[in-house]
Amino acid sequence: MPVQWHASIPSAELASEDCDVFWMRRCLQLAQRGLGGASPNPLVGCVIVNKAGKLIGEGFHAKAGEAHAEVDALRQVCEAQELGYLGADDLKGATVYVNLEPCCHTGKTGPCTDALKEAGIGTVVCGTLDPNPLVSGQGRDALQRAQISVRVGVLEEECAELNCVFFHAMTTRKPYVTLKLAATLDGRLGPRQSAWMTSDMARQEVHQLRSYSDAILTTANTVFSDNPRLTVREGLVGKNPNVRQPLRVVLDRHNRLEAMPHCHVLDTAEAPTLRVVGSGVMVSHIDDAFLVVADTGTGLDLTQLMTGLCERGVTSVWVEAGGTLAGSLLDAQLVNRLKLYTPPLILGDTSTPPMISGRLCGNLSQAIGWNVLNRYTLENTSVLDATPIYPA
Ligand SMILES: NC(=O)c1ccc[n+]([C@@H]2O[C@H](COP(=O)([O-])OP(=O)(O)OC[C@H]3O[C@@H](n4cnc5c(N)ncnc54)[C@H](OP(=O)(O)O)[C@@H]3O)[C@@H](O)[C@H]2O)c1
Fold this sequence. Notes:
Blueprint lengths: L15 H16 L13 E5 L5 E6 L8 H14 L12 E6 L11 H8 L3 E6 L9 H8 L3 E4 L3 H7 L1 H9 L3 E7 L17 H12 L3 E5 H7 L20 E5 L21 E6 L11 E4 L8 H10 L4 E4 L3 H9 L5 E6 L26 E10 L2 E9 L3
Parallel strand pairs: 3-4, 4-5, 6-11, 6-12, 7-8, 7-11, 8-9, 9-10
Antiparallel strand pairs: 1-2, 1-3, 12-14, 13-14
Helix pairs in contact: 3-4
NADP nicotinamide-adenine-dinucleotide phosphate (NAP) binds next to strand 6, helix 8 and helix 10.
């Protein structure tokens, strides 16, 4: 059933820039409904407002391969027209708001610019241009050539932030890496095979954030130590039909998992697993379940790993491993985001692993600074959400 057909902006006196901001905020809200489903595509929401300022259609991109947000919103308008809720002319000269520039190429679906032209849209307001080289200003140009007026840059920062994963993958050809760590107040990861140290709410958030990622990265060390499942649980699967089980990626430089065939990550009934082995390692049969990466002598080449994952369509990686991998990822400046969960505990035991180890940090000038995006508590666990400021 169509919703909000008669919704209009709160005040007819709003200036056009304020209307742009108002509707773009709604696009950002709608776009988030694609979390966990849209990848490797961006999160996009779309709103259509008729010439009288009334909201006539909304849409979002739910899943790669399915309708883009603009087409979803146009479809909603057409359905309402067929049911007689809207007049045949409501799309003529209407304004389309969308947080990302409409595409102008044929991928799994046709160009959105064509759909907007055919619908008789008068104006398109975008949050940002699309960094995809196949679009990148060409969507805007195609609309302008069709006499559609285009405004770009409304809530540009928020729109780019919402799609930080897509923007990062498109511009660097590497996935956006989030390092998740759960550590005590004295920076320890907790004794081997210990139960979750953090609160239930923190655990639920971790499962939610896993489900938004294309891949979960761990190591054979962590598998031997904890035998984790690294799947999305906590009642999330089934609640949202678009929730997928991310690809589990295990750094297994020397193919040690061969000696642990019954570990949870090798049970692929629930979720797929990719084993990353070093070049030169003898594996009885290499298939799609393996990725071979150069061995630097001290570990696997993590930059090559990230490039290889991106080539396989992985745009975001959630890291759940120990302090050694965390240190190496930070040294290679591959971490884009930190989620640090700290329960109110002190172990005071130097035999338990530290949350970061092995960083080649000689002095304070080589320390990594953090730009704090958010700090909050989930029951007894405090959470730091931050992006790194790497030393030059
Ligand atoms: N609290 C948490 O958030 C959390 C999450 C997961 C794990 N843990 C804990 O972390 C502990 C394991 O930590 P850990 O430091 O021993 O192991 P880790 O960081 O999980 O794994 C390190 C291992 O990964 C392999 N590796 C391959 N390439 C690498 C590279 N370029 N850089 C770094 N490592 C590379 C190496 O093993 P090879 O030489 O064999 O290749 C290395 O020893 C476990 O006790 C587990 O309980 C805690």
